[in-house]
């Protein structure tokens, strides 16, 4: 039985209950991937890749009135609650928000790890497009490549740049209009 077709005669919505629970776990941050609770515990090498991108995007994000972070993203109507490695969001949307929707972001970045590479490559790519994230940047550390997905739709992203091997400059379109150096990822 899907969440959409569940019987809520007891007054409890399982999607809301699950998302409430993960927001109140003490200690480690967790996300929900297709109904499975997963801890978010990146390695330092993983964090170094994210930090390199944050440094390159930082000045332009400030010019756009945005913040860069790894706050919660809710995907309503689904059993998903994501914690991206980086997201660029308007500062006004971030204020007071416990979670944002993917379509409220300007850019979402996921950096793969051995344990989640297929999730980032397939599941999150599909869901981010479905929920309207305008740009999704996948940094695939196992394949040593980057891929930028743009122009989201219900059936996926319609514009794909990559995969490009590390070291290949990657242009980010408007509103960023800058080129990322991928050699240090």
Describe the protein's topology.
Blueprint (H helix, E strand, L loop, with lengths): L13 H10 L6 E4 L2 E4 L4 H20 L2 E4 L3 E3 L4 E3 L3 E5 H4 L12 E5 L5 H14 L4 E6 L4 E9 L2 E10 L4 E3 L5 E3 L5
Parallel strand pairs: 7-8
Antiparallel strand pairs: 1-2, 3-6, 4-5, 6-7, 8-9, 9-10, 11-12
Summarize the structure.
The chain is α+β, with helices and mostly antiparallel strands and 185 residues long. 26% of the residues lie in helices and 32% in strands. It has one domain: Alpha-Beta Complex (tt1808, chain A).
Helix content: 25-40%
Q: Can you count the beta strands?
A: 12
Q: In terms of quaternary structure, what is this?
A: single chain
**Contiguous runs where pLDDT drops below 50 for at least 5 residues:** 1-5
Name the CATH architecture: Alpha-Beta Complex
Distance between the termini: 42 Å
Tell me, what's the shape? globular
Number of helices: 4
Mean pLDDT: 89
Gyration radius, to the nearest Å? 16 Å
The tally of domains stands at 1
CATH superfamily: tt1808, chain A
| The top level CATH class name | Alpha Beta
CATH topology: tt1808, chain A
Helix and strand content put the structural class at alpha+beta
How can the largest sheet be summarized?
6 strands, mixed
- Describe the strand arrangement of the main beta sheet, using strand numbers: 3-6-7-8-9-10
| Percent in strands | 25-35%
Succession of helices and strands: HEEHEEEEHEHEEEEE
């Amino acid at each position: 039985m899907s969440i959409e077709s569940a019987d809520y005669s007891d007054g409890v919505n399982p999607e809301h209950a699950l998302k409430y629970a993960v927001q109140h776990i003490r200690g480690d941050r967790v996300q929900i991937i297709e109904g499975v609770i997963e801890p978010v515990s990146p390695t330092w090498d993983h964090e170094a890749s994210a930090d390199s991108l944050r440094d390159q995007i930082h000045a332009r994000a400030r010019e756009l009135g945005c913040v860069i972070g790894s706050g919660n993203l809710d995907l309503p109507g689904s059993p998903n609650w994501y914690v991206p490695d980086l997201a660029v969001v308007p500062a006004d949307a971030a204020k007071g928000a416990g979670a944002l929707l993917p379509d409220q972001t300007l850019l979402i970045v996921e950096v793969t790890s051995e344990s989640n590479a297929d999730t980032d490559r397939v599941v999150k790519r599909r869901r981010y497009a479905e929920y309207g994230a305008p740009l999704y940047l996948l940094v695939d550390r196992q394949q040593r490549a980057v891929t930028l997905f743009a122009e989201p739709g219900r059936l996926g992203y319609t514009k794909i740049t990559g995969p490009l091997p590390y070291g290949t400059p990657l242009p980010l379109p408007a509103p960023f209009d800058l080129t990322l150096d991928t050699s240090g990822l």
